[in-house]
Amino acid sequence: xxxxxxxxxxxxxxxxxxxxxxxxxxxxxxxxxxxxxxxxxxxxxxxxxxxxxxxxxxxxxxxxxxxxxxxxxxxxxxxxxxxxxxxxxxxxxxxxxxxxxxxxxxxxxxxxxxxxxxxxxxxxxxxxxxxxxxxxxxxxxxxxxxxxxxxxxxxxxxxxxxxxxxxxxxx
Length: 171
Fold this sequence. Notes:
The chain has one domain (2-170): Ribonuclease III domain (Ribonuclease iii, N-terminal Endonuclease Domain, Chain A). It is built from ten helices and no strands. It has helices at 2-11, 18-24, 30-33, 41-61, 69-79, 82-91, 102-107, 111-129, 131-151, 158-170. Helix 4 (41-61) packs across helix 5. The protein is globular.
């Protein structure tokens, strides 16, 4: 339980259901060691959906440059990315709390795993404390980072550029 106090202190939140908080940090590799352990994958899916909704709304409400839907979609993708979420996870020091299988501990924690953990944490906050708590949490911890990404405007990443090339070739 002491671990939960430390996590909650870092997050500035108080969970009603500590099982959700524990599950948010259980990497799927743990199932290799104990089939009964619930991994964070479902919470990750929920957290991803919540972030998609919140960031879409935020970008729409802060559309000072009259961007079209395509540009808004690109900015949303710039914010909702493994890189951004891994940075958020690092800011919160989430890697200290991620539980891995014995084999995965030898490999270490990747940015993708950090990003997934962050999404799972958002899912746990949403289920336990509600949407307003997630909004407040994001605003208090990542407002500057999100504003910076929004201010850069739409920046196409490698994947977007490759997809555009493929679409042009197929025409």
